[in-house]
Design a protein that fits this description.
Blueprint lengths: L4 E3 L5 E3 L6 H13 L52 E2 L5 E2 L9 H11 L1 E4 L2 E5 L15 E2 H13 L4 H14 L4 E2 L2 E2 L8 E7 L4 E7 L11 H18 L8 H15 L29 H17 L4 H25 E3 H8 L24 H5 L5 E3 L2 E3 L2 E3 L2 E2 H9 L5 H13 L1 H4 L8 E2 L4 H8 L20 H10 L3 H12 L11 E2 L5 E2 L8 H15 L28
Antiparallel strand pairs: 1-2, 3-4, 5-6, 7-10, 8-9, 10-11, 12-13, 14-15, 16-17, 18-19
Length: 570
Amino acid sequence: MPSPVDVSQNGNARHVEAAPSLFEIEEDLARLLERPRQVNIERKRSFDERSFSEMSMTHSPPRQVYKNSENSSRVFDNMVGVYSPGRWSGIHTPRSTFGYEPHPIIGEAWEALRRSIVNFRDQPVGTIAAIDNSAEELNYDQVFVRDFVPSALAFLMNGEPDIVKNFLLKTLRLQSREKKIDQFKLGDGVMPASFKVSHDPVRNYETITADFGESAIGRVAPVDSGFWWIILLRAYTKSTGDTSLAEMPECQRGIRLILELCLSEGFDTFPTLLCADGCSMIDRRMGVYGYPIEIQALFFMALRCALFLLKHDEENRECCDAIIKRLHALSFHMRSYYWLDIKQLNDIYRYKTEEYSHTAVNKFNVMPDSLPEWVFDFMPTRGGYFIGNVSPAHMDFRWFCLGNCISILSSLATPEQASAIMDLVESRWQELVGEMPLKICYPAMEGHEWRIVTGCDPKNTSWSYHNGGTWPVLLWLLTAAAIKTGRPQIARRAIELAESRLLKDSWPEYYDGKLGRFIGKQARKFQTWSIAGYLVARMMLEDPSHLGMISLEEDKQMKPTMKRSASWTC
């Protein structure tokens, strides 16, 4: 068994004797006393631990416990409310909980992450997208909601929740601002894509300017920002045990406003959300308009997190009822129509078209000839994944990493589907991981398809940026999914690949090429979420209890009875 290690101020590791002296014991005790106090709260079963099939919004006192909740089970019962930052070094860098010797780049990563912190009136409120003095700032000097999520998780895992709380409150306040693009007013629930802190040296005064899409490429509002905000609020609550933030009237209202945008009735015949191109991490034209997997998976996870966070009172009754109904419909739709494995692929290959009535097997009238040739070779005998998009006469068969990983973490994927997704990753390691994790999507569009779909976008050329590029930030999502499915060896293998390159390449935003061998042609260096994504992945691998703040267990009673054609399997 390896001996414990310490990390000095300069990041060098030194071994500590197995039998500590009295002075060392006193030093350790002093460090423990300096650590943030763990919040000890009474164990209460949360919404994500109970089947929302069993819930009825009867008017009982707030935070009621629904019937039969004691019969539900959860893998992470011993992880609820965990607050395990590990032992800290002099630079506030966590030492390994289990005595592993830390990788030399961990100290460098923490120092780089701390340099990215943005303060507003002497309080940390987020981290900027990148610190690359060799390139024009553009909007990389702003705090992006989606970009801050891995930074927030890293700080929570390290026992530093204040910056996360400040960020949640600041973005909530920005939500209340009037949002207009030209003469059109956006919905009240829209969260900003990003914000910038500006300092007026003459007045010695700081202000915050938010971007709700009016300055973004293509002028598209960020659909994912609100979902990430809800997910992060739950992560903060689970990590700290502090429910007072989520229970604030302002936070309760903010959650409702976000969900009202998504749960309102309209012309849609599907429970999925209709979106424009460029409304999420892939924020440029990439043919992901319609019902993209990333947005649907985040939507599902945000709905489940909202059930955990909302008070169970009369004010929230209607919203919670709508959430429960939507979760049932959304899970059925996604598990049925988006899931692709070797059997389903063969069924689509043999589809008949122009079917009419409710007995139709080819419900979306997808043309078998539209199946791309690559998918037949890509699909392994064992394995499967959620495809990129489903709409009338259209299926996008591309693999999208974020959507599939979130599907596992939110339990949108059944245990069997989650296992199949990881089987696919292992079987197609060279294509999806290569020499650097992790492909944002696969495969890349080339030639005529690239010209038509992207509009000849020079940044999204084949195997670059969003078009088959490799994004190190996705490492934390793969790690979380691998741990949840009992495949930590997948995470370990990917992390080792990243550690061989990230520091010496100065933490680039993305890599180019089929194998991810080259630093992206327009990639920023010292990209904050590349740094934070690595730290979160490393900390989760060393202490899997951290997974509890970002993972939701399956609701076993949510599985619908499949009364459909045998051609559709879930």
